[in-house]
Design brief:
Elements (H helix, E strand, L loop, with lengths): L1 H48 L98 H12 L2 E3 L2 H13 L6 H7 L3 E5 L15 E5 L12
Parallel strand pairs: 2-3
Antiparallel strand pairs: 1-2
């Protein structure tokens, strides 16, 4: 019995000693895989950040500078005539500076207002037009010549048939008119205020033409006859 237990314990030790190298190999394999994956990730990140750093990538060509005037330009290897220099004519030394073509500046637009005003030369004033003649002739009456009616009154005054009336004569007539039951109205006073009055002293014939602007009024003196003619 004791021998069987001892044999089993030895077998377990031996099996345990065989399992340890296998586990160590698995761990090393896992570490190697992780390292390889990490290294691959680093390469991918480096390729994204610095693509020129890759071994198969070519550097981009730098932009070519413009050649100087008159200088020789060497053909690149990609050109069919590689290796042959291209000659460009240099500017003539004896010729003067060439004038560059410059577009003419447009002239400012101007507005034509028309021909300039010219003052006319001074001329003599034109004669005044003749006054318009009247279409019909009117007899011009002298300011001093009296009308026929006025002339008759002047003759009656000279003969003593009439005399010029005064305000006192007119007031006496109005008083006598009121005593007889009459009453002169205000319109009568207004009409007679701007008319010339005469007092009839004896027989008298009223001349024609005493109307309108030549109207007059007559007062009868006591005992004088009523005048004849058209009283108006």
């Amino acid at each position: 019995m004791d021998q069987e237990d001892e044999g089993r314990s030895r077998t377990g030790v031996v099996s345990a000693g065989k399992e340890k190298p296998a586990l160590a190999g698995l761990l090393m394999l896992a570490v190697a895989l992780l390292g390889y994956a990490f290294y691959t990730r680093i390469d991918q990140a480096r390729a994204l950040l610095w693509p020129a750093a890759e071994p198969g990538a070519q550097a981009a060509p730098a932009p070519a500078l413009p050649p100087r005037r008159g200088a020789r330009i060497e053909a690149t290897a990609a050109h069919p005539q590689a290796g042959q220099p291209i000659e460009r004519p240099a500017p003539a030394t004896g010729a003067g500076p060439q004038a560059a073509a410059v577009a003419p500046t447009p002239a400012p637009e101007t507005t034509v207002l028309g021909p300039a005003a010219v003052e006319p030369a001074p001329t003599e004033p034109a004669p005044a037009p003749a006054p318009l003649s009247r279409l019909y002739a009117m007899p011009e009456r002298s300011a001093q010549a009296p009308t026929p009616g006025k002339a008759g009154l002047v003759e009656a005054l000279r003969r003593g048939e009439l005399r010029l009336a005064t305000p006192a004569d007119f007031n006496r007539w109005k008083a006598a008119h009121r005593r007889n039951g009459g009453r002169p109205g205000r319109s009568f006073d207004e009409r007679t205020s701007y008319l010339q009055g005469y007092v009839v002293r004896r027989d008298f014939v009223i001349p024609d033409g005493l109307n309108g602007a030549h109207s007059v009024f007559f007062l009868l003196e006591a005992g004088a006859p009523y005048p004849l003619g058209e009283a108006g």
